[in-house]
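Supplementary Text 2. Reproducibility record for the structural model of the 384-residue chain.

All settings were left at their defaults, and a single model was retained for analysis rather than an ensemble. We include the record here because the model underlies the residue-level annotations in Supplementary Table 4.
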Amino acid sequence: MYDKKIKVVHILEGFLGGTSTYMCTVLPQLVQKGFDVTLIGSLNRSYPEAHTRISELRASRVKIHIIPMYREINPLKDIYSLVIIMRLLLVSKFDIVHTHCSKAGTLGRIAGVLTGRSVRLHTPHCFAFMRCNSRFKKPLYFTLEKLLGKLTTKLVTVSRSEADAAVRWGIVPSHKCTRVRNGLSNGQFSFNNPSIKDSLCKASLGIEKDTQVVTTACRLVEYKGIFRFLRAAALSCAPNAVFLIAGDGKLKASAERFIIKNKLRKKVKLLGYVSNIEQIYAISDVVALCSDAEAQPYFLLEAMRAKCPIVATSVIGNKELISHSKTGILVEPSPASIAKAIDELLADENKRNKYAENAYAYFCKYHTLEKQISELIKVYKSLL
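Retained model, structure tokens:
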């Protein structure tokens, strides 16, 4: 505990994906370490169980302010959100403003400057321009990040590759950039019990007991590569495998049409949002992440913790977690490469076990929640 409570506000636009995991794991731990913690966020984009998670955060003594905030650029709505954030910053006089992702990072840092908050941290969780394919939006997002870098006291990335990219592209100089890896608690989880595979959800999903399971879990948006996974499923030659997609998003209807058009209904199952993802890890023989870019995906960290063999695209973010042919298989972001790697692992149980054990050891060494909190607190204290 500290003699004087440090007041930290985290600002986030959408309560879903890895950022919601970050808030639910990190913020209660900061409270336990003696910090006065507030979350300013929006539920315009959120998981179905977001209200439950918000209630749990409040129960852990995190102060919550739900405000209107929108992902897309809308000058009138954005100014309104900015004014609300400024009012909250002025009333509470936070020592540290810590923003997350693009929209909250923009509004929060501007509000921090206008209200005289001298310590303004930002965690991008994968820069928007890195995962955007629009010819107009990509350079716009890049230019905005370079301008906002001048308003940033410290850029706190979750991976070394993202930190290196920020410096290389001139978003911030190296002395204004640091890394704090994502972490997860590592208690005794039910999915680490081998016998669970005989009793859990294969039957409820209509999967035969001896069928091999390949899983991806992500928001169904463009940069997550969901159609790469679907095409890999179509190309896979594994004789007895089913492919699961856990997640929801705007591409769900398109994914359903693809499955029907390519006659994959017996081979691929769209599960929608899954609240108890541990059960899916428990029955998975291989997990795959097919993204265009990542920061440091919690999906891979959860899979490592659950001792699931991993196939991942060899892109920024994934490459830092997965060491090829040691903790998993890295592949080019093509359906054929993904399918080949999946089939290779499904055919070799010894290789699956070796990669899973190596990945779990790596997780325990570098990605525990305790290590993440310790490193984040060091950053906070160094700036005060």
